Each structure stands twice: as C-alpha cells, then as structure tokens.
C-alpha cells in the first residue's frame, strides 16, 4: 500500500524554529528515500511547538530538493484565506514542480484572538463558507465556475501545464459528502474521529461524482498518528510527549520524553497505543512487524490503499528511525484498495 507523511515542523525542546524548518525540509529527502508517496506540511498558528505556519514555502523548498515524492499541504486552513489567493499560490507551486503538488484543504480554529487577527476584515462576523471556498478553487482549476459566478471570467491556469491535485481533509460525514460532490480526493482524520472512519469513507464513496475535467474515481486515505521503534516499549513511550502536550495545552514546547515521563500519571502512560479489535487509539505504536499486524486487517476492512502518517517527535534520530520503520511496516501491508 501507499504511505505518506504529514510534517508539523516540530520544534525540539530548547530549540528554535529555524532548525525545525530545516529539519522539516530535510524530511522530504528522507521521505523520498524511504518510499513515501507524498509529504505534506501543516498550517498551525500561534504554536510554540510547531514551526509550520504556512505550508507553501516548505513545499517549494522540499520540491527543489526532491524529484519523485509528491509535496503538498495537510492542510491549508481555508477559513483563514481567500480561495483566489490559495488557488494562485498553489498554481505557482505546480509550475515549479509539475505533476507533484497536492493542495490539501481543511479548516480549523486557532482560538478567537488569532482567528480574528488572521482575517482581513476584523469587523465582519466569521462565516462558515468552507464548501463555497473549495468549490471556487476547483472552479478556477477546472474552468467550470457557473456562468453567473462573479469570478467566472478569471483564468488563473493560463501558461501552466497542469493543476494541483485537490484534497479535502476532514473528520466528519459533511466533509466526506463535500469531497464526493466535488469529485476531489478525501483524507479522513482517523486519529481525530476513529469511530466514524468507515461511515465517512462509505459516504464519500456513495456521494462521489467525477468531474468532466477529472474523470478519476474516488481516491481516499486515512490519517493516523504512528510512532515506531525497534522494541515495543520504546515505541509506546514515544507516544508520551504528544499526550503530555495535549494535557497541558499547545501553547508550550513539545516536551522531551523525560519531561513527559515526569508529567504524566501512571494511567495516562499506560493508556493503550495498539490497534486491537478494530478500535483505533489516538496514537498507534509498535515495531515494524507489530504495526503491520495491527494495520493490515484494519485497512483491508475499510478498503483504503494509503495512510498518511503524523508524529510529534523532536529527537532527530528517534524520529528518523520511527519513520523508517513505519515505511517498512506499511510497505509490507497487502491490501486490495477500493479507492484509487
């Protein structure tokens, strides 16, 4: 099966964001060598532990240092941006890395204060128009905005041989239906809402309508948080920093493994990190072999042929080894995917 990566540009304890960004770009080269299909960069605002506030510069740098792996956003938070700006910016990236750019679209709050600061018009009440925004972007790319749409005459693709591959990221049936109606790719956040995974993918499949300009069928993947090591105990312990970060709030550095060990109680440390009986924990851990055993029956049941992996590891050696082992595990998973 295919396996991909989302990089948050995690900042090492007592480190700086410049170093984190350097490592995030280097991750693209590592991902390409390890056989990852794509690497996406996230958009997180006002976070101490993540340096990836804007995916676009990281995508451009990663594309320049690789030749095969797809590069993209996981995701552009469209509620903070103009659809025109996003469409144009990613067409520039497509021109720089033809046939390799993914535009992953999502929405999220950074808190009332930051959400307001990100808006151009701070006086207007926020509006949930995500579906209209995604539709506008696909309309620019496919030249199929309704003739009554005010931006119908605009052609952004002139002189560019292709367009980015558009994906909607979400964790609900509503985003699944949106991706299906628009005929774009769908990434379901199983690490956020695991019980809804199968229903959301089924909803996406049933509502999918291919575009006249993009006749491909449904294409879906799931997002999971996975850590790996050469022994089960270390792999499980690598889930602790993320648990400690979640417990204390994200406006703080990502704790070290030692800090997490001192902060977490026994029950939180012992909380399962293995996928058993179809129950998906918020983080999955294991060795390459145990991860294959955990994930193969799960992906066979839900019919996806690609997993996009996230981690919150800041130790360079542990992170590189984890991603190497995750790649080995997922490369060995045998699945007949229902999605492209």
Strand fraction = 5-15%
The sequence of SSEs as H and E is: EHEHEEHEHHEHEHHEHHHHEHEH
Number of beta-strand segments: 10
Low-confidence parts: none
The CATH C-level class name = Alpha Beta
Could you state the CATH homologous superfamily? Answer: Luciferase-like domain
CATH topology label: TIM Barrel
- Tell me the strand order in the biggest sheet: 1-2-3-5-6-7-8-10
Give the number of domains. Answer: 1
Number of H/I helices: 14
Q: Strand pairing plus helix content: what structural class?
A: alpha/beta
How would you characterize the largest beta sheet?
A: 8 strands, parallel, barrel
Rg from Cα = 20 Å
**If classified by CATH, what would the architecture be?**
Alpha-Beta Barrel
Gap from first CA to last CA: 11 Å
Mean pLDDT: 95
Domain Luciferase-like: 1-301
Protein name: LLM class flavin-dependent oxidoreductase
Family: To bacterial alkanal monooxygenase alpha and beta chains.
Organism: Pseudonocardia ailaonensis
Summarize the structure in words:
The chain is of the alpha/beta class and 340 residues long. It has a single domain, classed as TIM Barrel (Alpha-Beta Barrel). It has 14 helices and 10 strands. Strands 1-2-3-5-6-7-8-10 form an 8-stranded parallel barrel, surrounded by 7 helices. Helix 1 packs across helix 2, helix 2 (55-64) runs parallel beside helix 3 (83-96) and helix 10 packs across helix 11 (257-263).
């Amino acid at each position: 099966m295919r396996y991909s990566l989302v990089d948050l540009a995690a900042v090492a304890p007592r480190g700086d964001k410049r170093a984190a960004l350097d490592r995030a770009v280097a991750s693209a080269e590592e991902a390409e060598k390890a056989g990852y299909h794509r690497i996406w960069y996230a958009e997180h605002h006002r976070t101490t532990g993540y340096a990836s506030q804007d995916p676009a510069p990281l995508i451009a740098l990663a594309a320049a240092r690789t030749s095969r792996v797809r590069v993209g956003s996981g995701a552009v938070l469209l509620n903070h941006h103009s659809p025109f700006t996003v469409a144009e910016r990613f067409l520039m990236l497509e021109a720089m890395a033809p046939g390799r750019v993914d535009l992953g679209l999502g929405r999220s709050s950074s808190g009332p204060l930051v959400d307001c600061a990100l808006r151009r018009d701070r006086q207007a009440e926020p509006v949930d128009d995500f579906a209209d925004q995604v539709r506008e972007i696909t309309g620019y790319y496919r030249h199929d905005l309704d003739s009554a749409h005010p931006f119908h005459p605009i052609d952004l693709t002139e002189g560019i041989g292709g367009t980015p591959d558009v994906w909607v990221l979400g964790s609900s049936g509503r985003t699944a239906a949106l991706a299906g109606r628009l005929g774009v790719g769908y990434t379901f956040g199983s690490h956020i809402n695991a019980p809804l995974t199968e229903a959301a993918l089924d909803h996406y499949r049933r509502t999918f309508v291919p575009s006249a300009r993009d006749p491909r069928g449904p294409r879906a993947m799931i997002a999971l948080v996975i850590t790996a090591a050469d022994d089960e105990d270390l792999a499980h312990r690598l889930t602790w920093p993320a648990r400690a970060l979640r417990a204390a709030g994200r406006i703080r550095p990502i704790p070290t493994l030692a800090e997490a060990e001192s902060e977490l109680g026994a029950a939180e440390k012992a909380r399962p990190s293995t996928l058993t009986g179809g129950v998906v924990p918020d983080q999955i851990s294991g060795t390459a072999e145990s991860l294959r055993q955990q994930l193969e029956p799960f992906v066979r049941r839900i019919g996806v042929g690609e997993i996009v992996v996230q981690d919150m590891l800041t130790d360079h050696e542990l992170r590189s080894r984890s991603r190497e082992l995750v790649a080995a595990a997922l490369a060995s998973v045998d699945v007949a995917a229902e999605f492209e």
